[in-house]
Amino acid sequence: MNKFGVPLYMDTLGTIFVTIAVGPFFGIMTAVISNTLCMVFNGHAIYYSAVNALIAVHTFSFMKRHSLKKQKDIAKLILLLAMVTGLLSTVIQYLLGEIHSTVTSRNAEYFSDNFGVPFILAVTMLNILLNIIDKGFSVAIVLGVLRIMPVKVSTLLRESTLKQSLSSIIHLKNADKNKSGIKYSIRTRETLSLVVTSIAIVVAMTWIGLNLYFEDGKQSRSENAYNAARFAAEVIDADRVEEFVKEGEAASGYKETKDMLTKIKENAAGINFLYAVVMRENGCQVVFDVDTEEQSGHEPGDVVSYEKDILPYIPALLNGEAIEPLVSDGIREWSETIFYPVKNSSGKTACYVGCQVSLGYDADYMRNFIIRVLLILAGLFILLVAHELWMTNIYVSYPIRSMSSVMDSFADSGDEQRALDENVRKIRELGIHTGDEVEKLYQTLCDMTLNQAEQMRNIRRLTDSTMKMQDGLILTMADMVESRDSDTGAHVQKTSAYVKIIVEGLRDKGYYPEKINPKFISDIVRSAPLHDVGKINISDKILNKPGKLTEEEFEIMKTHTTAGKEIIEKAINTVKGGSYLKEARNMAAYHHERWDGKGYPEGLHGEVIPLSARIMAVADVFDAITSRRVYKPPFTLEKALEILQEGAGTQFDAKCVEVFMDSLPEIKVILNKYNQ
Questions:
Q1: For the residues 141-167, what does the mean pLDDT come to?
Q2: DSSP string, 520-582
């Protein structure tokens, strides 16, 4: 494009492609490299590296919100990039002083003159329009290449820059969704630290450099001014000063002397004015005044009024004395004027050579130099920040955030072994390789989570073993009671099965959700065999009496509830932690309580009766009336169900009866199994 003079640049084509195909950091790197290479044929290309880098930033930001599958989105991207490039290019051209020498300047001047649009606005509009065409071609080429590129190649390009396993990056999506408790991310903190530090270093170094430069410049200019004034004093014939003042260029040797003074001024760097004057009461009378590029000097004999800065030194100057240099301080305004006395043959001061130097030219040069340096540094600065972001993401942020995400899941697993094992697998799948403390932390987490999962597995095995032992003890105690009661064949097994059916039915229907949970279900099913443990205190005569019990005997029989409660409470105090026995105690003590409060031993009613006891009441009565006893034959299933339904809401918890009736198929299976 540069060779054929086409007003298109295409220098952002690689930047846009790499940003979309690989990522923002490599897009910014491509931008800086592109503009550096373009210096081979365009020395000013490097000043636009920051603009190209910002193209990568805006392209990546746009891609995060759009997919570029719609023409509308493609048009938005082209317009966005054209706006960014056009506006920033105009600013850079203005800062470099090239606003009137660009490709678009001639057309902008025509547009401005004919339509009354401000020149700078016309340049901006034309730059944006030109970049719409330029970025349109670039985006079209990039999208075309991406569409024909094999998926494997594009995937390889993307994954090759991640440096970590793809699994850790995938987990970042979950980590980004849950940022609770995070005030500042590592990436944000590191980036801010880098930006602030870099700016501070640049400002400090620039300030120090400028101060050193200007201090050195002041000293150099002062020496130049003094030497120029001294040389000029040697050139001027002091004995003919009055003649030069009166006759001017007509005086013999005047022109030659002025030519010599002009050469002295031209050869001394930084000198603004060089002149010779005679000090009078009413002002400086000009002897010589060397012309400058901007204006001609005063004519010989002209009297120039004293400036304000010199007034304090007038008496000394009128006496022909030497005075110290007059200094006006400030970077752009700094100047120094030296008045060097020119002595005649009698040793008196005939006139003074005035020599003024300043740093105005140097200040303009330094301003342009600094602008160019800052424009170059801007692209490098963006690249540096992008590199820091990339490094922080790859080696710190990605690993830590992915570990945090998986560890959150591990913590939420609780004591569920399958979930623990699955999360251990996910942690190991991260495959974090940073070669530093982060990788060491990752390895430690892998070992810790694996050990914790194994410890939980061992605890579960120990718990299962303990539970089996406890269940064995419970069944042994229940068998001791059952072996004394000739009528309770398989009563323990059947009531336990009925309890399990009822409690699971309550759970499935959503009844008593605040109470029914997996632990509660396990506790009451395991402890159900102990509901009649108190019968161990009842004599065989009463326990196995074939006929109806007398009133006194029945009162004794009722004590099996309180006796069972006492026995299990002693077991609870002995075991210290056998919480499942608390439900065993409730069932043993209260399974003969009634919903209407007419039961025993305490006359509890409604939901005051423990839920486990209400469940056992239904199971116990149903088994009692459907089983053979020495004093009665078994009731039919239909009769037994009728008795339960009649007692719903009076003797029994209606919800327990409801789920029992809904589970008749399972009930019949148990009856057929044990009542044969």
A1: 76
A2: HHHHHHHHGGGTTGGGGGS-HHHHT-SSPPPHHHHHHHHHHHHHHHHHHHHHHHHHSS-THHH
